[in-house]
Design brief:
22-stranded mixed sheet; 6-stranded antiparallel sheet; 34 strands; alpha/beta
């Protein structure tokens, strides 16, 4: 009984309860205080990060605007290279107000895209460890009516020489000829009789003695040339900086070899810089040039075609930059169409432009075919056997030889520093401009054809309008700013 009373007494004793309640309250308040401090600190940290993040974005955007203003200040320059510099390039802007003691900066790069005349500016805004990226694309279209240095070719001019024109055998010219020379015998015709030149004959003067011909040759009376013809080569372009493609398939260490098993065919669809491209064993390298407004660029140190072929697919364009060696062995085909439709032939030919800066003679023989235009910086050119070339030929070399049964639709063969020599039964359809011209053989023909001035724009920018004014450019924002 006593034990039961003691338990009851103990259970009903309320002494010390206040202390327990106070201790519980202190613990609860401490937990709440610590939690509140943690939340506050987190919020402060997040707010600081958001502030820096937003500031980095504004710095990146400012870098874009600064670079755009710099471009606009150069719009009166004569070329895109002078306006935006060599590509890709990088500029660092650091003249911003410090943020919380930290110096912000914007790293701005500009590069080409795969669209003609479209460029991309990328700006990275940095504040401490925070960075944001802003991108924008723009175009630099030329204002209507402006141009670079044009090339003027008189209507119906089949052959023009800065010095002499010599025709032997049964060579015939369907069109006019001209020379700025007035020296006796500057135009010499030998061999068969008849109407060997169907058009007008323009000379520098001395109408009575400048032409030497046998009595059986009938010609129109010569005329003194009225215009001043100072044919100079257009500027040879700087080759673009392009990335080396990754290894894979027939690509190894910057070299592409199509031919050996298992790569008897290969399709490539990127801008790239190769060390060597080899296509052999009657195989084909296919280059996807993309959509109508796309422009593929491939730079290669050495291109060797050994009975190999290059085919273009798509509606875009390809510019091929060849630095050192460009060799043909046997029969090769580049960008060939078998259509007889002249409009389709023109469209296919306009898709390809080649720039060759090597010093070794370019020899195109066999039954090789090329549909495209080429600018040869220094080397000589030899088109022989049954090879055919369709497109403009711009040559800075000393000699251009066309021989054998070669049939060429060259549009414009522009070689103001070279002797152009035709032999065999070779033929040219278009206009030949040379330092000297000589033809000797049976069945040689030069047939003038009207020139599409726009097709010369990649080499002579002024020929889209025929205007000799200094080019000016517009700046057009292509897309809104893209923030990453």
């Amino acid at each position: 009984m006593k034990l039961s009373l003691d338990v009851k007494k103990y259970m009903t004793n309320e002494k010390g309860i206040t202390l327990i309640l106070v201790l519980i309250l202190i613990v609860v308040m401490s937990v709440l205080t610590v939690s509140l401090i943690g939340v506050t600190a987190t919020n402060l940290k997040v707010s600081s990060g958001e502030r820096d993040n937003q500031s980095a974005y504004y710095i990146a955007e400012s870098g874009i605007n600064l670079h755009i203003n710099s471009i606009k200040e150069n719009l009166d320059k004569e070329s895109v290279d002078e306006i935006i510099g060599p590509l890709p390039n990088e500029t660092i802007y650091s003249n911003f107000e410090p943020q919380q003691g930290i110096e912000p900066r914007a790293i701005v790069t500009i590069d080409e895209t795969n669209m003609d005349g479209v460029y991309k500016i990328t700006s990275i805004g940095e504040i401490g460890n925070r960075s944001r990226v802003v991108e924008v694309t723009f175009t630099l279209p030329m204002s209507e009516g402006e141009s670079g240095p044009p090339i003027f070719i008189p209507s119906d001019m089949a052959v023009f020489s800065n010095s002499t024109i010599k025709l032997d055998g049964s060579t015939s010219i369907n069109g006019s000829v001209g020379t700025v020379s007035d020296n006796p015998g500057s135009i010499t015709i030998a061999g068969g009789g008849g109407n060997r030149i169907t058009g007008d004959i323009f000379v520098g003067g001395n109408l009575n003695n400048v032409i030497s011909k046998p009595n059986g040759v009938t010609l129109r009376d010569p005329k003194v040339i009225q215009n001043s013809f100072d044919y100079t080569l257009p500027q040879f372009p700087n080759f673009p900086e392009l990335t080396t493609p990754a290894n894979g398939g027939p690509i190894s260490n910057g070299n592409l070899h199509v031919g050996p098993w298992p790569f008897q065919g290969y399709t490539f669809s990127e801008d790239a810089h190769f060390n060597t491209i080899i296509v052999d064993s009657n195989t084909t390298l296919t280059i996807d040039v993309g959509g109508e407004n796309e422009h593929r660029k491939i730079r290669v140190n050495n291109l060797h075609l050994r009975q190999g072929h290059i085919r273009l697919v798509g509606e875009g364009k390809l510019t091929l930059y060849i630095e050192n060696q460009f060799t043909f062995q046997s029969t090769n085909r580049i960008n060939v169409t078998h259509s007889g439709d002249q409009n389709e032939i023109k469209d296919v030919t306009d898709q390809l432009n080649i720039f060759y800066s090597g010093s070794n003679k370019l020899e195109v023989g066999g039954q090789s075919q090329i549909f495209g235009s080429i600018y040869i910086n220094h080397a000589d050119l030899d088109i022989g056997a049954s090879a055919t070339f369709t497109g403009h030929i711009i040559s800075g070399g000393n000699k251009v030889e066309i021989s054998g049964d070669s049939k060429n639709n060259t549009r414009v063969l522009f070689a103001p520093l070279a002797k152009v020599e035709m032999t065999g039964s070779s033929q040219v359809r278009g206009t030949i401009i040379s330092k000297e011209y000589e033809a000797s053989g049976g069945g040689i023909r030069v047939d003038y054809q009207e020139i599409d001035q726009d097709s010369l724009i990649p080499f002579f920018p002024g020929n889209g309008s025929g205007d000799e004014e200094t080019p000016t450019f517009n700046f057009e924002l292509q897309t809104p700013t893209v923030e990453k």
